[in-house]
Design a protein that fits this description.
Strand content: 15-25%
Number of helices: 13
Distance between the termini: 11 Å
InterPro entries: ATPase_NBD, Hydantoinase_A, MfnF
Protein name: Hydantoinase/oxoprolinase
Radius of gyration: 20 Å
Shape: globular
CATH topology of the largest domain: Nucleotidyltransferase, domain 5
Pfam families: Hydantoinase_A
Organism: Gimesia panareensis
CATH class of the largest domain: Alpha Beta
Number of domains: 2
GO molecular function, one term: hydrolase activity
Strand order of the largest sheet: 3-2-1-4-5-6
Structural class: alpha/beta
């Protein structure tokens, strides 16, 4: 059985099949929800016609939808339209696939369940001890405790996970720098940051050479290329300057400070999760488009640095690691679901 997995987010679409092919593309769902079905059809051209489509999502929170129920319904309608006549199943936080009808009836089971699919799939790598999965994407971070191969989260919905520290709304690309810290060191003082989206965490990691430049990538705060020169312009704007007013070393210091503050925010969330676990963590699994940040977090953490570290990108290729949730639902469906002919 040939299965395609989808992870429909608010800013990215990720597709993977059960054979290990994957693609991830930017898609501003909140701006153009009406284009979702057509965009999915275009992505399908890179894959074969599936026998089954397995879906997980976070895009129901996009502000083009008034409610999560509306978001789940419209996303599933677009998926059904794009992949007809293939049957569509939805991963739920109840650790099972449900039909699209049930997902529409109980939308909170399907809403924001992609982290659960990933943890269920990779948890088998830690079958006999406590583990921790840290997935850092462009926008959010998931910190998921594992026990005997299964996810054992404190919360299931977004708000429950925010309250528990298992969901942190910070990532390696789209987070505005003013959400990382209210101020930065500048000329011997702490300078407040403009409460605007002048620069994002992408710019920090470009400047610090932790992300490669891509002149064709225009998914930035100002729509200009994802290059170091353009990142300098954006970061300077965050303190109401241009690059003629700030030195290279000042911009570098700002970027380093902001990264340290983002790491501290993540460390505090990790500490909350570890405190509840009680027992020591033997293995840490890391993944996501900002896996480099997850590795930095683990290696700098006094407890996690003592655990065994596994980067999913080193087990799968980087494309699969970036679309890990889509790959997870495709593999879980291939294992668990039988299609009656």
């Amino acid at each position: 059985m040939y299965v395609i997995g989808l992870d429909v987010g608010g800013a990215n679409l990720k597709v993977a099949d059960c054979d290990g092919r994957a693609r991830a593309v930017p898609f501003a769902l909140w701006k153009t929800p009406e284009l979702l079905a057509g965009t999915l059809r275009e992505l399908l051209a890179d894959f074969g016609r599936p026998d089954l489509v397995a879906v997980t999502m976070t895009g129901e929170l996009a502000d083009c939808f008034e409610t999560k129920s509306e978001g789940v319904d419209q996303i599933l309608t677009a998926v059904e339209e794009a992949f007809a006549p293939a049957p569509v199943l939805v991963w739920s936080t109840g650790a099972e696939f449900i039909t699209t009808d049930i997902a529409r009836e109980f939308p909170l089971l399907a809403a924001a369940a992609n982290w659960h699919a990933l943890a269920t799939w990779v948890g088998r790598m830690v079958p006999e001890q406590r583990g921790l999965l840290i997935d850092i994407g462009s926008t959010t971070t998931d910190i998921i405790p594992l026990e005997q191969g299964f996810p054992v989260p404190e919360g299931l919905t977004d708000v429950e996970r925010l309250l528990s520290g298992e969901l942190v709304y910070t990532g390696g690309r789209r987070t505005p720098v003013a959400m990382v810290s209210p101020s930065v060191p500048l000329r011997g003082q702490m300078c407040p940051l403009a409460a605007e989206s002048f620069a994002t965490t992408l710019d920090l990691y470009l400047l610090l050479e932790m992300r490669p430049e891509d002149a064709l990538d225009l998914e930035t705060a100002n729509g200009k290329p994802a290059t170091r020169d353009a990142a300098r312009v954006r970061l300077a704007r965050s303190v109401c300057c241009d690059t003629t007013e700030l030195s290279e070393s000042e911009l570098q210091e700002m970027a380093e400070w902001l990264v340290s503050q983002q790491l501290e925010q993540l460390k505090q969330a990790v500490d909350r999760v570890l405190e509840r676990a009680g027992e020591p963590v033997g293995t840490v699994l890391i993944s996501g488009s900002a896996v480099f940040l997850a590795e930095k977090l683990v290696r700098s953490h006094p407890i996690l640095s003592q655990a065994s570290l596994t980067d999913l990108a080193e087990i799968f290729d980087a494309t699969i690691a970036d679309a890990a949730c889509a790959f997870a639902v495709s593999r879980l469906a291939a294992e668990r679901v039988q299609i009656k002919g």
